[in-house]
Amino acid sequence: MSETPTVALISLGCPKNLVNSEEMLALLQEAGYAFTPDPVQADVAVINTCAFIESAKSEAIEKILETAALREENPELKIIVAGCLAQRYQKEIRQELPEVDGVLGTGSCGEIVDMVRAVLAGEKPSLCRNISAPLAELPRAVSTGPCWAYLRIAEGCDNRCAYCVIPSLRGRFRSRAMENVLAEARMLAEAGVKEIIVVAQDITRYGTDLYGKRRLADLLVELCKLDVRWIRLHYLYPEEIDDELIDVIAREEKIVKYLDIPIQHIDDAILRRMNRRGTGAEIRALFRKLRERIPGLVLRTSLITGLPGEGEAEFEELCAFLREEKIERAGVFPYSPEEGTPAAAMPDRCTTEEAERRAQLCMDIQADVMDGFAESFLGRELEVLCMGEEDDGTPWGRSRYDSPDIDSRVVFSGSAAPGDMVNVKITAVDEGELIGEQIGD
Ligand code: SF4
């Protein structure tokens, strides 16, 4: 073991899980641990996992086995599995993955230092505390670079969608106190962050548990007072979007006119089976209202194909909706039956291949929509947050219509450096990416 024990932290999954990784990073830093991106150089590898669908589980297990294989070069390497796979399969990990030393549940991130000490002492601890316990305010080491950061405002979910395991992995919905959220946002702004991305499993529910009413609109008004340039909203539950929130989004210039509203489907019977609260007509009406009240709005959504009960007619309705609604950004996932969810016990499920075929058909429709959207910027100027440089030194960045890791980019000629906000004139589109030239400094 090295003089200053060294940790390699590997973060998989969603932005909320990344924030957990950043909290564990900060706690280990405070405890004096060193860090390396390479597990071969580490004493402990912490793998913060995702497990909400089959593909995520496979990715996590692959990463665990891949890391364990590095013991050929680093026999003393200890492995801690944290996050959703640990929470969901703590027993199975113990029985089937002897490579693993420590198992840390989603409600136990605050105990990462104790866990690391224990595995370095040769123990094999499992810590999976109550996942609905009151939220602990933990320090955080932002890992997304100097110019943007996630801001998690709540944990857990009470929506209980029939196909989803997240409530059983992340617990009941719990808002963070507004003063704590604002203190963290202030710290980010003072550190020079230009873009704050507001996340939770369902941000629209913010405040309902702690203050007895929705307070996302109030929170956003306060966030807009900070010295940041963009505030982006992810994971809005459609039925929880009210007029007060729409007014704030429309009025506040800093809130980018880009809303991520996962609807999952549009057919009424499928939405009922999903235990989603709205109807297809209500979703259409909401999108119409949002586009009327928020000029230039860009919508992102998530969809599931192949849920039990989805036949040709229901699927065709989804395709027709995508063609007519022209949602600028979308992720489409083939249904993945997750044991323990109501949907997994439902009859009339098409094959996985068929669910994948339908997802691909939806993405084909979306590809045309997204190409059309990209071409609509030709000849126009866009504000771009410079994120980095290509190998040849060409700057690239994101516009307000691109969220990190899931949307597109802007590649442009110019002198911008990471963190700079610059104006770019769009001159071409290349495979969905915008190409342009920087205007001014
Ligand atoms: S809103 Fe539904 S899909 Fe999203 S985390 Fe909650 S239960 Fe899962």
In short:
The protein has 13 helices and 19 strands.
Compute the separation of the termini in Å: 50 Å
What is the CATH fold-level name of the largest domain? pyruvate-formate lyase- activating enzyme
- SS field, number of helical segments: 13
**Shape designation:** globular
Structural class: alpha/beta
Q: CATH-wise, what's the superfamily of the largest domain?
A: tm_1862 like domain
Which CATH C-level class of the largest domain is it?
Answer: Alpha Beta
Index terms:
441 residues, alpha/beta, Rossmann fold, pyruvate-formate lyase- activating enzyme, OB fold (Dihydrolipoamide Acetyltransferase, E2P), 3 domains, 6-stranded parallel beta sheet, 13 helices, 33% helix, 22% strand, binds iron/sulfur cluster
Task: Give the SSE layout.
Elements: E1 6-11, H1 15-30, E2 34-35, E3 44-49, H2 54-69, E4 78-83, H3 84-88, H4 90-96, E5 102-104, H5 112-120, E6 126-127, E7 148-152, E8 154-155, H6 166-170, E9 174-175, H7 178-190, E10 195-199, H8 216-223, E11 230-233, H9 243-251, E12 255-260, H10 268-273, H11 280-293, E13 298-305, H12 312-325, E14 329-334, H13 352-375, E15 381-389, E16 395-399, E17 410-413, E18 421-430, E19 433-439
Parallel strand pairs: 1-2, 1-3, 3-4, 4-5, 5-6, 7-10, 10-11, 11-12, 12-13, 13-14, 17-19
Antiparallel strand pairs: 8-9, 15-16, 15-18, 16-17, 18-19
Helix pairs in contact: 8-9, 12-13
Bound molecules: iron/sulfur cluster.
